[in-house]
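Example (one chain per record):
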Amino acid sequence: MKYGKWWWARRITAVAILSIFVISAYFKRKLLVGDYSGSTLLGVIPLTDPLMAAQSFLATGGLYKTAALGSAVVIVFYLLAGGRAFCGWVCPLGVLLDFAHWLSRKLSIRKPFQGFPVETKYYFMAATLAAALASGVALYEMYNPVSILARAILFAGLGAGLASWLVIGALFHYELAVARTGWCRSLCPLGAFLAILGRYSLAQVAATGGREMDIRNYVEVCPEPHALKLILNKERPSGECVMCGACVDRAADGAIRFGIRKFRK
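Predicted structure:
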């Protein structure tokens, strides 16, 4: 499969962001200090995972001003850039699981499972919030695979014990041999939260061709074909699109492209 410009752009972006985190952590620079759950950009701008902020609020009944501001900054950004753009352009776990999928293709592994229904991750998100409220602790963050992977890379495995590594290993093998985007599409609670933002995001992927466009031309490259079907049919977006640009690369004639949402009255 030939990789297009948007594939390269998002891979370079993900590696660049991770590299800035690493440089900040190892060389004590105030470029991007922290991790994917909470960080500070240039020593001034706070950035906070909004799902983690919501868990913290429910668990403790309050939220530090810095965390609240950081969460607001992230929410506004993804309302502009596309709710699940984090999944397609930033998330280090997404890169790892994409590698697992690439490896499965190289090894010709036939995956027996189509994955859980897309709606499952919304139930999982609700469960993480309910657990925080009931326990007084952000329980999910203890085994959040994105946080585990980030800590392992940025802090030489600090806080990533055997159980944590088993979580990462299980997800890798799940993607390798069981289901395509099994975690990202169907189970990730942060993906659910960002998908809700995506329903109202300014940026979007839009089809400029007619409704007769065949989704089968894009299934091979699209990690979220259920979202692409709505795009091709020019229906109301579900927010599930990860803005990866794979379908834009495949539609070399410009029949699918990035654009600005036109809100209906």
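Caption: The longest strand covers residues 203-207.
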